[in-house]
Design a protein that fits this description.
Layout: E1 4-7, E2 10-13, E3 18-24, E4 33-39, E5 46-51, E6 58-60, E7 68-73, E8 78-83, E9 92-99, E10 115-116, E11 120-125
Parallel strand pairs: 2-11
Antiparallel strand pairs: 1-3, 3-8, 4-5, 4-9, 5-6, 7-8, 9-10, 9-11
């Protein structure tokens, strides 16, 4: 069982930057592809970004491409989401997720992920 703990959320102003972290408990973190999703009030959870086991392959939602960067530090078993140019529409609870596969292909779909964190709130004031 992999436990994921997100951190780094908070209240920022539009245009600001924020970095989210996701710490994994499993030492086999470096064999899992990972993803970030988010859920705004009254909306369904949506894909944000995905990364393969090594960090060499990444995918992004069109809405965040060019503003957000997903990365990972396998030595520290930690996943990151660097967010810049934050907009009011980015406000949501952000979740990290792990899948039992090294490949990030198909990672836009929630069902491929086996483990989820509890989420961290990002609030953007305009």
């Amino acid at each position: 069982q992999v436990q994921l703990v997100e951190s780094g959320g908070g209240l920022v102003q539009a245009g600001d930057s924020l970095r989210l972290s996701c710490a994994a408990s499993d030492r086999t973190f470096n064999s899992y592809a990972m993803g970030w999703f988010r859920q705004a009030p009254g909306k369904e959870r949506e894909f944000v970004a995905a990364i393969n086991y090594s960090g060499a392959t990444t995918y992004y939602a069109d809405s965040v491409k060019g503003r957000f960067t997903i990365s990972r530090d396998n030595a520290e078993s930690t996943l990151y989401l660097q967010m810049s140019g934050l907009e009011a529409e980015d406000a949501a609870v952000y979740y990290c997720a792990a899948r039992r596969s090294p490949s990030a292909a198909g990672g836009r779909t929630e069902s491929v992920y086996a483990y989820w964190g509890q989420g961290t709130q990002v609030t953007v004031s305009s």
